[in-house]
Design brief:
7 helices; seven-stranded mixed beta sheet; alpha/beta; 19% strand
Amino acid sequence: MIYLFLAPGFEEVEALAPLDLLRRAGLSVTTVGIGGKTVTGAHGITVTADITDLAYTDLKDPAPEMVILPGGMPGSLNLDASPVVDAAIRAAVKNDGYLCAICAAPLILGRRGLLKGRRATCYPGFEEELVGAIEIGGKVIRDGKIITATGMGVALEFGLELVSVLKDPATAGKIKDGIRA
């Protein structure tokens, strides 16, 4: 399963653009609201999640194929503080799933030591949070099963990269051509 976590203060475009692209690719993505089913983003846009964080903990097999963490403030800090997000990250790592974070959200991976010795990127000013990362920089960086991106301006590129790894580059290319990105 693919889980996209939404916490109060998330960056709306960083969540919804990848979500849209993944669903265009025919992939099943479940949005998980941290603290409730309706979650308001950093710019006052309210989104209704598919399930709540409590419903996620009730799933019998929550081992995610992919965990997606949109940035934004204070959204990234709210995700970082969530034990449910932490459990999803641990389950993804244990089961060789993808960890994907954009903007400030790579700090969540950095604080857990998951970027040690890996290439990564983030929104400018959060580099110190990418503990142990190497070659910090670039728009969208994939290093093994970890995909990071700099921010809202590359949300489409980020989403297309997620499609590329879960489906294939040809599908990502067709979607890109269809949206004229």
